[in-house]
Amino acid sequence: MKKIMITGALGQIGSELTVKLREIYGTANVIATDIRSNDSEAAQAGPFEILDVTNAPALATTANKHGVDTIIHMAALLSATAEANPVFAWNLNMGGLMNALETARELDCQFFTPSSIGAFGPSTPKVATPQDTIQRPTTMYGVNKVAGELLADYYFNRFGVDTRGLRFPGLISYAAPPGGGTTDYAVEIFYEAIKNGHYSSYIGRGTYMDMMYMPDALTAIIQLMEADPAKLKHRNSFNVTAMSVDPEEIAQEIRKHQPDFQLSYNVDPVRQRIAESWPNSIDASAAEEEWGFKAQYSLSSMTPDMLQKLKQKLAQPN
Ligand code: SER
Fold it and tell me: Which atom of ligand 1 is nearest to the CA of 117?
């Protein structure tokens, strides 16, 4: 990775990844792109271009203009939004990915795109979900993710494009909020704990999903992209995770720092159904063995950091 273009750079992952990559690879060497701009550091403190990833010529022209050797393709709809707009989700998630892969092929770029725990479905083994297993998701997002994993493998096998990917769990972060995911409750709970001392969860008690703190997600992307290709047997879509939690466990951890915090439930049937179709906990041993993945943050070490950073952020005038 010497000159990197990121799509969806103002989203939950992209906005922090852009800043971190600029620290490591140099500000001028990380081109952030998104469908719209904002006043974030990712958009303002380095190269930034407006880019609609469904516009194939625009994607190719932007990458070509900056002479990039790496494309990190983040632009996509998350699970709940995709469920509400399945045709748009197909067009954006698959069309954007295809355009980005084609540009990577044409310009001989290294390529990263995230998959998700959403690539699994109700017939997948629910506990310690293996790297290679049944993938019959029942959401549009999941269909997109499975197709994306296969497409990225295809571009490697057929054209030799150096594609790599991770199956992310829910990502917990304080910088940019997630938009329209099923795991978003695990971020909202921290915002509401600080703002109101109370959170009403749309995911039910006892519903377990994997989660990871954003610093671990960023490290995992960089580590995988820098990994020796000879050691990668899977390449696309390694299971990665740091914790398997339900709303109650997060609330208990928050209470260690904020004893009065209260959790109640107002379950959203759509997102609950999606959550129940996903694994309770995934097995990340292939990532550990093939490129040394190891999460630094557990629920108990993440919680005080998240509360402290979010308090600082919410205290700032904007
Ligand atoms: N965080 C994503 C979602 O909930 C899962 O990959 O949609």
Answer: 6
